[in-house]
Structures are given as structure tokens and as C-alpha cells.
Amino acid sequence: MRSEGIVVTNSHVIKNADEITVILSNRSELAAKVILADDKTDLAVLKIQTDDEGLPFLKLRDSDDLEVGDIVFAIGNPFGVGQTVTNGIVSALARAAVGISDFSFFIQTDAAINPGNSGGALITMDGKLVGVNTAIYSRSGGSQGIGFAIPSNMVARIIDNALNGAKVVRPWLGATGQNLTPDLMKSLNLKNPWGVLVNKIYDNGPAARAGIKAGDVIIGINKFDIADLNELKFRIATLKVNKRAIILLFRNGKKEKVIFPLEAAPEKPSREVTKLIGRHPLSGAIVANMSPALAEELSLDPMESGIFVMSTTSNSAAKRIGLLKGDWILGINGKKVFTVRSLISSLNKNAPKWSLTLRRNGKVFTAVIGG
Hints:
Elements: E1 6-9, H1 11-14, E2 20-23, E3 29-38, E4 43-48, E5 71-76, E6 84-95, E7 106-109, E8 121-124, E9 129-136, E10 147-151, H2 152-163, E11 175-179, H3 182-187, E12 196-201, H4 206-210, E13 217-221, E14 224-225, H5 229-237, E15 243-251, E16 254-262, E17 274-275, E18 285-290, H6 292-297, E19 306-312, H7 317-320, E20 328-332, E21 335-336, H8 340-347, E22 353-360, E23 363-370
Antiparallel strand pairs: 1-4, 2-3, 3-4, 5-6, 5-8, 6-7, 7-10, 8-9, 9-10, 11-12, 12-13, 13-14, 13-15, 15-16, 17-18, 18-19, 19-20, 20-21, 20-22, 22-23
């Protein structure tokens, strides 16, 4: 992607690799190092270790210029047989493919993509990169004409972060929402079921400061229409922090535009990741204060707050009582706890038995230990 040897592939391709080798078209093999890997988008940026500053590279094409029916070429190494080029058309745009990445917004193509094509280029007729092949839908394990590629506009954002020496920092909405149903569409007087209904607003977050309110319907951002929640998340993720965007709303039967500040999710409160120690049943649990920033990292509801269990160490008291990663600690011995510090304070008080109030998968329960 750059003449100095910048390479893009899928994050899952290089995950847990001890050594990475890039094979060029002239069959030369060069070592590479990871500059940035982003599991949320399933993209990774590598730097080939070479003194050659004149390597050939692909230019990016705006993936929003694509149309269904455009001819594309998929390049990869299917089944390890060697570099292979297949061709097809763009079958669909803005396709949701559940479970591939946090941003389910893909180019669908019928160009033959098989195991080994992951991280390969999807190229247009003018020789520009329009996507990175990442997954297929198949019952047999081979190509059935349904392949998915990450759009180049998302690729461009990850490359930009990597070359500027930063971790991936994405803007956040500061609100939660849901897709429209036919019933909601009728009640809101909407002609088309396009948009995202805003449910909750984070106090003093970007949505609140932009004037967005619960009950608004987000129908556009900048020049793009917003069909659903997946598209809204994708569009915001392709924008840069410390900029502004124009969001188009449907409110009280009318369209309104608001200026939306693009900023990272705040680390409030500080996460204070702590391994609990002592003579109590939570010893060995690793807990943290939930914040919008941590919720974004963990793909959780950014409106959540409280004490979150990150993990438990093996053979610990917390492990033995069945505490799980993803549990929320709500109270100790009948007293509510809201922060890691208040939790530690409660645990430092010796007790003949312990009453733990937890939330797991949306259900609250109390467990009594000892006594």
C-alpha cells in the first residue's frame, strides 16, 4: 500500500504468529513486522523489512464509488497453491455478515474466494484496491460464490492510524439505538424503514452536545444515507476524531441537521484494572471500572457502568466459586458497590460469611459463601 513496503492483511491471518514472511510477485521472501493489528475490523498493517523504497504498490479506490454489477478481481493464495486471480462482480454493497468483525458492513462478490484468500486484494478494473477479502459463506468449505471484503474506506482509516504511530481510536456516538421495525415506522410517521431510532443519550457525550435526543431517528451522516445500526457504526468508524460530521435527523415529522463532534469515548471513570487479593471469595478476580472507552474496546453497551470482571486466575478463590469473565459485581454483604475502590474497601472488612450480588447475562442473583 506504500512504496516503502506497507502491507495490509487480515488480523486473523497473522494472529499469534512468531514470524511473518511476505512473498513478492518475483518470489523473493522478506520478513515483516506488525505495525498495527485491529481485531475489531479484522485488519492488520505490516512493514516489510527492506531497504528498497521503490516497491510497486496498489492505490486505494473510494469503495463508496462501487456499484452492484461492477467487475472485480480477487487475488490470494487459495489452499496454498500459490498466487491466484479470480474474477467476478460486486453482488451487493453494505452487506451484513454476522460474526466476521464488529463492523458488519461488507462488499459481497461472487469472485471465487477460498480458504487462503483471506487478506488478499479485491481490485477494480482500473487496478485499484477496493477491498480486502476476509470471509466466505460456504457449506462445503470451498467457494460458493458468496465472498465478503472489507471496504477500502475502512482500510484507509486503519492504514492512517498505523502510519501515524497511533493505536486505533474511533469516534463514538454517545448514544444507543435500534433498527426500525414496520410498527415503529408507522408510529414515527416515516415512509421508509431506514434509519436508527435513538434510545438513550450519554450525558454530556457527543450526541448530547450535538442536540440529538432520545426518539430522534438518524437517517444520514455527511453525504451518506443510514439504513440501519450496522451502517451507522461503519460510517462513524471511518471518520477521524477531532473533526466534525453533519448528522441528518428525522424529528417530529421533519428533517433536521446537527453538527456532530467526532471524539473518542471517554475513560471516565478510570478503569483501574485490579487483581483482587486477600482472604475473601473474590481473591484472584481481575476487575475494572466500566467506562465508555472500555465498553467500546470490549464491544459492550457504552451506557453500562459499574464493576466488570475481566477474568479470573486459575486455582483462585474467585475461580472456585464460579465467578466468570463478563460478570458484574453489584454488592457485597448487602452494600452496593460502584467502583473498584469501594469493592476493595468492602472486601477488606473480615466477615464470617460473604453475600455477593452479581449480574450475569442480564440476570441479578445473590450467592452466599461460607457461614
